Amino acid sequence: MMPLPPYVLNRLRARILRLAGLRIGKGTVVFNLPTIVGHRGMLKELHIGENNVISVGCYFDLAAPIHIGDDTTLGPQVMLITGTHKIGSAEKRAADLIPLPIYIGPGVWIGARVTILPGVTVGRGAIIAAGALVNRDVAANTLVAGVPAKPIRDLSQPAD
């Protein structure tokens, strides 16, 4: 069976993913099937809230839970990585897996090709600019950008 083409039948795709065992809230649209990797039983580790937009090419590493709040938009090719490793010996640097959850609050906008690393919390109403690498928590109502991502603007204040 051929998958549904991107950008069409988005709500149907979300329903199909629900039937496969994913927790996806009502009103959420999924523009293309995300790549989901992890361990057995991983589907219960992903929670996607209501009225979200999941764009094409997204990647979810479910070594640990990922929670995406309501009214959040993930741009194209967003990567959410929950697994890292202890530093091992010279014979094998990537030693034991360290799974750390990712929490994305409600009302967040994540731009294209953003990578969010293990253990990060993104606060309510934050914006992460396209191409950013998020390796630490993002405060609510803050615009961050860059590699690594740094605060650019407080969104709770009116723009100049």
CATH topology: UDP N-Acetylglucosamine Acyltransferase, domain 1
Beta-strand segment tally: 19
Number of helices: 1
CATH domain class name: Mainly Beta
Question: What is the CATH-assigned architecture?
Answer: 3 Solenoid
With strands numbered from the N-terminus, the spatial order across the biggest sheet is: 2-5-8-13-16-18-19
Structure description:
With 160 residues, the chain is mainly beta. It has one domain: UDP N-Acetylglucosamine Acyltransferase, domain 1 (3 Solenoid), CATH 2.160.10.10. Helix content is 6%, strand content 36%. The protein has a 7-stranded mixed sheet with strand order 2-5-8-13-16-18-19. A 5-stranded parallel sheet has the order 1-4-7-12-15, with helices on one face. The chain has a 5-stranded parallel sheet with strand order 3-6-9-14-17, with no helix packed on it. Strand 18 and strand 19 form a beta hairpin. The longest helix has 10 residues. The radius of gyration is 16 Å and the shape is globular. The model has no long low-confidence stretch (mean pLDDT 91).
